[in-house]
Fold:
Amino acid sequence: MQIREAEAADWDAIWPFFRSITAAGDTYTYPRDLTSGQARAWWMLTAPGRTVVAVDEDGTVLGSAKMNPNQMGGGSHIASASFMVAPEHTGRGVGRALGEHTVAWARAEGYRGMQFNAVVEANTRAVGLWRSLGFTVIGTVPEGFRLPDGSYTGLHIMHRPL
Structure:
């Protein structure tokens, strides 16, 4: 697996899994009915942000991550990131590789820490992965996320120092 800078042409490979993940409505706070144009504008970042793709030896896009300052101005020394792995490629270490890559990027760019603002508490695979990469839950918004079945779960704020 290789992680490289995302190119404009990669959107055609990212969009199908981005659409299916966000439409499912159980892991991201994105609207469930985003158009490709809206999603592309939110995902394909320009500096100081960055978007990458994980690809296999054949060039197949397995997943993607975007990383950026968490806030502007006085909060711009803390990084943030978001990750998506194509459902057919889960369980292959793609999420871990993207997570490790974004932490290394943030450290190399001089960020003092990394914060995830909205990790769905019920997304136990993601929460476990981020914990294994040194993130801790520093707070949870009770019932901050509405699941597709109408029930509510918390939204974790996760952080790790760099």
